[in-house]
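User: My instructor asked us to take a sequence, write out its structure as tokens, and then describe one feature of it. I'm not sure where to start. Here is the sequence I was given:
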Amino acid sequence: MIFHRALQREFTHVAAAVFVALFAVLITVVLIRLLGQAAGGRVPVDAVLALIGFGSLSDLPVVLTLTMFLGVLLSLSRSYRDSEMVVWFASGLPLTAWIWPVLRFALPLTLVITGMTLILSPWANMKSVEYRVRLENRDDTQRVAPGVFRESSGAQRVFFVELEAGEDGKVSNVFVSEERGGKLSVVVASKGSVQTDEEGNRYVVLEQGRRYDGNPGTPEYRVMLFDRYQLRIESNQQSAQPLRIRAEPTAELLKMADKRSFGELSSRISTPLAALILALLAIPLSFVNPRAGRGSNLLLAIPIYLIYSNAVLLCQTWVSQGKLSFTSGLLLPHLAALTLLVVFFYRRFAVMSFWRRRVARVEKPTQQGQGQ
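Assistant: Let's start with the prediction itself. The structure tokens for your sequence are:
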């Protein structure tokens, strides 16, 4: 049918454009956040790309949900502005005729969102946590980056290297500050390298430098010149941190069966349900009055999306805190959205019926006058 084919083609094209724009915004936001952490020394520069990938995969279901909503909304809004909807209505199609084409477009994407929410997003969160733990467990020499003051894992030393290692494997202009027991030690060397002995012990070897030892705020300092200064590196113990609840696999949440797991489960199940309901809600919300402006319907659609998504998060929090049962927290926001969907459809039907009766009353006297 021409009606269905035209809608499917337009939904697909508009949704593709919206997805590209939203995904670019997502990548930009994640990149800015991670670059700020990298500039502050909390995240190594070489880990930014991997963490961007994990963060993007984690937030991808939200992007697809908003893509479906805006794809249907913008497509039907254009039909209203270009008077195509008037032609379809004049052909005898009711507003409910758009439900099936929207479902054909939304159901496959809803299945994709379901898979991402239940499987892909937890996996991405888990890998992000494991990657951060592995970075935190690196020894101090692996944390050093050229041109950046970097604090050690125990917050007792501060390292600075001006130039990275050359062909000989040695860095240039090394600065190390260490504070223990109220005493400050500062070591400055022209060159430095990391060496490993036959037993596997690792050492920092500094060449041609000075060491200053003393108490901060007093003039009592001891200066020591050295040609070669060797310091053993203590390996960090591998610490296994517990996974955040968002990083737990769905199967593990079902086994845990506590308040926090139920709250996270309600959030994961709510995401595809909200995506499908929002796609249907875009049908009545797409009405545009040409006299009110091209984007007047967005003034209502965007707040509804924000309220709906925040209601889902609020119910998830209440389930996690034990204020709501799992069933109530899962169903309440979606039942409210379905009620709003019915109200909007009824309102559009009432407006259309009013105008049809008015047109019929105007046409009837005209026909009678032509008959006389």
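For the description part of your assignment, you could build on this observation: The beta strands are 150-151, 157-163, 171-180, 183-196, 202-214, 221-232. Try explaining in your own words what that tells you about the chain.
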